[in-house]
Amino acid sequence: MYNLSKLLVAVDSSPYSTNAIKFALDFGKKFNCIVDALHVIDTMQLEGPFIYDLSGVLGFEPFINFSAELKKTLEEKGRSILQAFSEMAQNENVKFNSFIEVGIIPITIVETSYEYDMVFIGKKGINASFERGILGSNIESTIRKIKKPIFVADKDFYEIKNIVVGYDAREPAKEALELANALAGNLKAKIHIVNVRKTETENLEDSDLNIIYLTKQKSVADTLIEYTKNLQNPLLILGAYNKNRLLEMIIGSTTEAIFRKECNLPLIIVR
Question: What is the pTM of this model?
Fold first, then answer.
């Protein structure tokens, strides 16, 4: 049973993060819950090898206090990001807190997430323009490690009107459907339970559900995305990584395939 009372949004200075904040505050307002913002100063940026590499690129010798000065600069930037979040939360009349942590970004987000009901994050970070079509390692690592439902915000923000659940009758899909049912009322959204099948005669045994059957075209991921994008203001909810981890590394799962595509859809991944 899902009950939203505390939400966490991981923030940086990217436009994707701004949309993650907007979605988190929209949920906070509609579910009357607290939204906390976390900004993580990456330990990797404060360590010796990074500083020596940076000094080499910029053409100067590293000096003794450079790490301390860099930390101070990053803290000031973090406070500025959280101040912007605070103003957005106040404008939406949403209860909130904000804090800065220093650590390894994925590990810090995951460890902080334990006391929250859902985590919001931007699909790409501040280096999105340099990622060349792949996701940032911090975001991907966070999604792989986290146990709580994670909302991945894309390029656009809107109030959700339709929720699509990718359903295959396995446990992660059932968890996704349970979450959809918990969200739909407060969001005033319609639920679409969708199964992508290989042939037109292939049906699931779960007869209690009103399942929409789609016949696979290019791939399961493409078929599901096409259906979802034809709806007004959609949200896609998927169960996480059903396959063996080694197999995923070789061929990828449907969830991972959708996660990696440039489809501009907000996505919740559920374990």
Answer: 0.86
